Amino acid sequence: MTRVLYDLCGIDESLRFSPYCWRVKFALAHKGLDYETRAWCFTDKQDIEFSGQGTVPILVDGDEVVGDSYEIMRYLDRAYPDKPLLGGPDAEARARFLKFYAERSLAPGMMRTIVMDLHNAVAPKDRDYFRESREARFKRTLEEFHSPAKGLTQLDQALEPLRGRLSESDFIDGDSPAAADYLVFGFFMWARTVSTADLVSNADPVYAWMERMLDQYDGLGRNAMRIVDIDHAYGT
Ligand SMILES: N[C@@H](CCC(=O)N[C@@H](CS)C(=O)NCC(=O)O)C(=O)O
Questions:
Q1: Which domains does the chain have, with CATH numbers?
Q2: Dihedral through CA 225, CA 228, CA 229, CA 231, nearest 10?
Q3: How many angstroms separate the Cα of 170 from the Cα of each of 4, 78, 102, 152, 194?
Q4: Closest-CA residue to 217 (of 63, 89, 35, 59)
Q5: 61 C-alpha vs ligand 1 centroid, how far in Å?
Q6: Which atom from ligand 1 is nearest to the alpha carbon of 129?
Q7: Probe ligand 1: pick from 21, 37, 55, max atoms within 8 Å of CB?
Q8: Distance between CA atoms of 122 and 43, rounded to whole angstroms?
Q9: pTM of the predicted model, to two decimals?
């Protein structure tokens, strides 16, 4: 039976920008597992009711329904032990730190930088929902929250530990990428797909790592549709 990944889509059905879904797409590629994606919009909650949750990614693998990007990685290691993503308990505990580092230290600065690009990238029917839910979260309007100058400064500071690691190693997980890289890189795919903002300078070790990550798995990341590829994306 074909594996199915529910994957957030935007203004074009092929524009896939969820950082959490990107983690899973890299994890599936790492394991060499085939899957189909099901394009999902924020407001299509009824389509994922079967999973008992309101967010994507959701992986349906035969009788297994698994939600949450990190739980999906754990599931993949249990079900397909070859080519571990997270590794043993010690390694997994450290990868879990990277999950929180990405979500709590890197994502906020990126969000401040790209929030208006995101608003433009979501499916038109999702725009009101996106605005209302995010304004409630930020406790201010998207326009008030939006500040690339502040966001990039925040991100620049938060990237220091990653720079340290990537100055000594090609990937966070060593000579080749694994869960730690995917947990972090998902957010760089998020920004890349919806925005043209340069998050890091090309002299930065993080930039060289991003380029290596984009080339993994036959250019899985590099070939992904970006907002700039969509003619009708601006001024709608
Ligand atoms: N902790 C979850 C977070 C998933 C998540 O927040 N996904 C977003 C898409 S990027 C979503 O589905 N949001 C639904 C909404 O905002 O209503 C994970 O790691 O998978």
A1: 4-79 (3.40.30.10), 89-233 (1.20.1050.10)
A2: 140
A3: 31, 27, 18, 24, 26
A4: 35
A5: 19
A6: 17
A7: 55
A8: 11
A9: 0.98
Distance CA 192, CA 125 (A): 22
Length of the chain, in residues: 236
pLDDT tens, position by position, 139-184: 999 999 999 999 999 999 999 999 999 999 999 999 999 999 999 9
> What is the reported pLDDT for 231?
84
CA of 26 to the centre of ligand 1 (A): 17
Sign of the four-CA dihedral 98, 144, 210, 83: positive
User: ∠ at Cα 156 (150, 161), nearest 5°?
Assistant: 145
C-alpha dihedral (214, 55, 228, 216), degrees to nearest 10: 10
Find out whether the beta carbon of 115 lies less than 6 Å from any atom of ligand 1.
no
Give me the sheet containing 64-67, strands edge to edge: 36-40, 4-8, 58-61, 64-67
Which of 17, 18, 20 for mutating ligand 1's site (highest number of atoms within 8 Å of CB)? 20
Alpha helices per DSSP H over the chain: 19-31, 69-79, 89-101, 107-121, 127-138, 142-145, 148-158, 160-168, 179-194, 205-219
Closest of 29, 37, 36 to residue 218, by C-alpha? 29
d(CA 113, CA 108): 9
Q: Cα separation of 184 and 19, whole Å?
A: 9
pLDDT band of residue 204 (cuts 50, 70, 90) is: very high
